[in-house]
Amino acid sequence: MNSTLDLQNLIQGFKLSCQTENKSPKTIEWYICFLNRFYQFLKRNNYPTSAKRISKDHIRAFILFLQQEAKTPHTERPLSQATVQGYVRTLKSFFSWLKREEYIERNLMTGIPIPRAISKIVNTFSHEQIASLVNYCRTSNDSGYRNLAIILLLLDSGIRVSELVDIEVEQDKHFVIGLRLSDDDYVAELRGQSQVEHGRDLECMICHDKFDHLLSGTCEVCFREWMLSTKKRD
Ligand SMILES: [Zn+2]
After folding, report:
1. Distance between Cα 139 and ligand 1 center (Å)
2. From ligand 1's centre to the CA of 10, what distance in Å?
3. Does the N-terminal or the C-terminal CB of the chain have fewer CB atoms within 10 Å?
4. 154 and 112 share a domain?
5. What is the average pLDDT value for the chain, to the nearest integer?
6. What is the CATH number of the domain that holds 12?
7. 166, 181, 197: which is the final residue of a domain?
8. CA angle 24, 27, 28 (to 5 degrees)
């Protein structure tokens, strides 16, 4: 087997290529981490790891594995739909690079769609439930008012429990609250860190449409979706 076609080597080549395109270090880190997981999956299942011998079925098996079996490293929970989408976008970028560099003749990711995400509706407390929580705090003696303060802070600010726990009191003077970034703010921040390329007929490496400018190699729409797929949710 020609080892230059082995995925492990190609992933390194892809990394180098991303670096010369001035993609943000964070983006490159996600790409490489996701691709290494793909490589480990192929090896574990005794599937070929040579770019020329990988088939669409291997890729589909990997996507199914992500959707049904893979767990996030620390929480052991199934991967979120957004994370799975992130993996598939990474594979799309990688395989279009393999094709561009002429390691493969056909882009295997053509015709493999990004799995659609079903939007989740969060169950919220009813007014009656909130009223009984508040009443319970009022009537309990020990930590009643402390608990009431916690509940009201959560309800009024919309912060997550993990953020509430992370609040630090600095020198007994004021609270520092790490507020949750909205999706728009999150994308805007990462957009500010990414390389903007202007020109004519620039090809988005994810959707392959042509644009007059690209952000880290992707169009505005793909960039947004890609970045949101990396945003932490709880
Ligand atoms: Zn695009």
Report:
1. 57
2. 23
3. C
4. no
5. 84
6. 1.10.150.130
7. 166
8. 90
Structural domains in the chain (count): 3
Q: Say how many Å lie between the CA of residue 180 and the centre of ligand 1.
A: 27
Whether residues 14 and 111 fall in one domain? yes
183 and 202 housed in the same domain:
yes
- Provide the percentage of residues in the chain whose pLDDT is more than 70: 89
Pair 158, 187 in one domain: no
Q: Rounded to the nearest 10 degrees, what angle do helices 7-20 and 25-44 cross at?
A: 170
Place of tokens 């996600």: 30
Separation of alpha carbons 14 and 2, rounded Å: 17
Task: Classify residue 174 by its DSSP letter.
Answer: E
1 and 115 share one domain: yes
The residue segments making up the domain with residue 224 are: 171-234
- Report which residue type is found at 26: K
Quote the pTM value: 0.54
* Residue 219 CA, ligand 1 centroid: distance in Å: 4
Over the stretch 187-196, which tens digit does the pLDDT of each residue have? 888 888 888 8
